[in-house]
Amino acid sequence: MKLLQPRPLYTDRVLAFRDTEPIKVITGVRRCGKSSVLKLVMQHIIDSGVSDSHVFYRSFESIAQRYSCGTDFYQAIMQAKPSDENKFYLFFDEIQMQTDWADIVNSLHVDLDCDIYLSGSNSSLLSSEISSYLHGRCVQINMLPLSFREFIDFHGYHILDQDPSITNSHILLTDHNSHITDADDLFRTYLRFGGFPGLAELGFSLEETDPVLTDIYNGVVLKDILEREKRRGNSAVSDPILLERMIRFLADRIGSSISANSIAHVFENEGLLQHRKNSPSAHLIQAYIDAAVCSFIFYKADRYDIKGKEQLRTLGKYYMVDIGLRNHLLGYQETDTGHILENVVYLELLRRGYETAVGKLYQSEVDFVCTRTDEVCYYQVTESMHAGNVAERELDPLLKIKDNYPKYILTMDHPLASQQDGIQQLNLVSWLLGQSAH
After folding, report:
1. What is the pLDDT of residues 185-194, one digit of tens each?
2. Contact 433, 159 (CB under 8 A)
């Protein structure tokens, strides 16, 4: 097996369900590393002492690996099963490419003492459909492109040990040639190129990375969305021009409160909806937004009324799955740093297992209200606290919250950490790299 870069954030989550009843399903946007994580989990199980003969792997992305029918698929697994009573581990990559896959996986789950792991692409399979196909017997682990911490690992950097008493120092990194780099500088590179794992082999060259991002984008838009909606019989989402305009619109407005009605008004003025007069414009726009979210190209953060403690139905915000992909679509915009940083933080909070919403408190807004089991915390994100009235603007909404849950402001400023009125200011890069305790 090709040497794979570890991704413990996801392998640990999958392995937490090892030898349990649910079928483990790895989901996520195209090319985020699902197949690699599936192989890493398989290798971990083999390294733990399970015999190779008790592990079965098949990648259905290759036509040569597919079976002509579901019966042949089932029989091949039954014949491969060892004769002893030990558990059989089954790994199926791009499972949706195999005919009758759901019936066979369900049958194997019932007929064998086995532990089943799947990865699947949204080109043919919605995350929301998986539980139905597998009769509710599954657990889904959603993957994202590389975090900044994973990014530095994939590119061969390591964090240098530094004197913890020096609170205003930048974090320093070193590569395999012992070249020292400021983590802030590499973070700006991350904001430019994004975190799709396949780009790590290409270095920091737009000539090399742009074709890969083009392929990912075309795959998501032209295949994952349009072909899937056609298969589902959803004739509403069928216009590639309108879909691409929608994606660019959402990408340009990450972190902004928007509604289907407001987008429909813009598109009507542009003449994009003239041929759809028999369909309510807002409903049509919502169908396109939902299709983009289902393909994991965008994530929606709903609004949450902090005082009333209830979810609000209107004016949510959308964040893009990868900043590098956004730059590829819109061009690199150094003037939009605030929303870009907010996007990065939102995805990181998802990685850390938080349910994350946009907070509303009277006329104020808190960037993120985060919950995880019985834990609650609040985050504001800004590039700097030193310009104009930014400090007052960022502190004021947090000061209005009267509970005692932790409150943080993430900023690119140094020093790394400070506190004001119980609100902790943390350096964003330090927080992303796990050098902060929060």
Report:
1. 999 999 999 9
2. yes
The tokens of 290 are what?
Answer: 């939902």
Entry field: residues in the chain: 438
Q: What angle do CA 203, 207, 208 make, to 5 degrees?
A: 45
Question: Rounded distance, CA 46 to CA 295, Å?
Answer: 32
Cα dist. 242→141, 276, 283, 384 in Å?
31, 11, 14, 37
* Crossing angle between the packed helical segments 240-252 and 281-294, to the nearest 10 degrees: 80
Q: How far apart are the first and last CA of the chain?
A: 37
- pTM to 2 decimal places: 0.93
pLDDT per residue as tens digits for the range 149-179: 999 999 999 999 765 555 557 899 999 889 9
DSSP 346-370: HHHHHHTT-EEEEEEETTEEEEEEE
Q: Mind listing the domains of the chain with CATH numbers?
A: 8-143 (3.40.50.12060), 206-432 (no CATH)
Q: Residue 392: which residues within 8 A CB-CB, separation 6 or more?
A: none
C-alpha–C-alpha distance, residues 271 and 265, integer Å: 10
